[in-house]
Amino acid sequence: MSTDTVRVIGMAAGVIALAGLAAWFGLAHGCQASSTDAVVAGRVTIAPELADRVAGTDVLYVIVRRPQGPPRPIAVKRIERPRFPVAFAVTRDDVMIAGTQLTGMVEVVARLDKDGSAGPAQPGDMEGAFKQNPTLVGGKDVEIVIDKIY
C-alpha cells in the first residue's frame, strides 16, 4: 500500500471516530439539538404472566439514564395508576437536575413500583428495559416490556 493510501484510510477512520463521538454526546446534526429532538417516547406493556400482579396503587416510572454512567437518572416520567399499554414521552421537563441536557446516548427502563417511592427496586417491583439500549435521544418508537419481578 502506498503512503497516500495509508494516509487517506487514517483520515477516514479519524472522521468516522469523531462522528461517532459527536453522536454519543448528542452533538450531531449541526451541534445543536432542536427542542423537538429532546424527547424519548414510546410505549410500555407488561408481560402476560405479570399482568395479574398490577395493582391500582402502582406507579410507573420511565427512567432515562446514561449508559455506563452513574445509576442516578437523567430524567424520569412518573405515571400514576397506569393502564397498559401506556404511551409515554420523556422530555426536558422531566430532567432531574436543572441544567442537565437530554441529549446523546441513553438507556431507557420502565419500573412498576409497588409503594410509589422513587429509588432502587424493592421486592415486588417489576421492570423492563428497551431491547435496543443504549439509544439516541430523539427516538419516538421505544417499546418496553415489563418482564422482570424483584
If you had to describe this structure to a student in words, what would you say it looks like?
This protein is α+β, with helices and mostly antiparallel strands and 150 residues long. It is built from 1 helix and 9 strands. The protein has one helix at 3-24; strands spanning 39-46, 59-65, 75-80, 86-91, 105-113, 126-129, 135-136, 142-146, 148-149. The strands form 2 sheets. Strands 2, 3, 5, 6, 7 and 9 form a 6-stranded antiparallel sheet that branches. Strands 4-1-8 form a 3-stranded mixed sheet, with no helix packed on it. The chain is elongated.
- The total of helices stands at 1
Percent strand: 25-35%
Secondary structure: helix percent: 10-25%
Ends apart, CA distance between termini: 57 Å
> How many E-type strands?
9
Distinctive features:
single chain; 9 strands; alpha+beta; 15% helix; three-stranded mixed sheet; six-stranded antiparallel sheet; 150 residues
Task: Briefly say what this structure is.
With 150 residues, this protein is an alpha+beta fold. It has one helix spanning 3-24, and strands at 39-46, 59-65, 75-80, 86-91, 105-113, 126-129, 135-136, 142-146, 148-149. It contains 1 helix and 9 strands, in the order H-E-E-E-E-E-E-E-E-E.
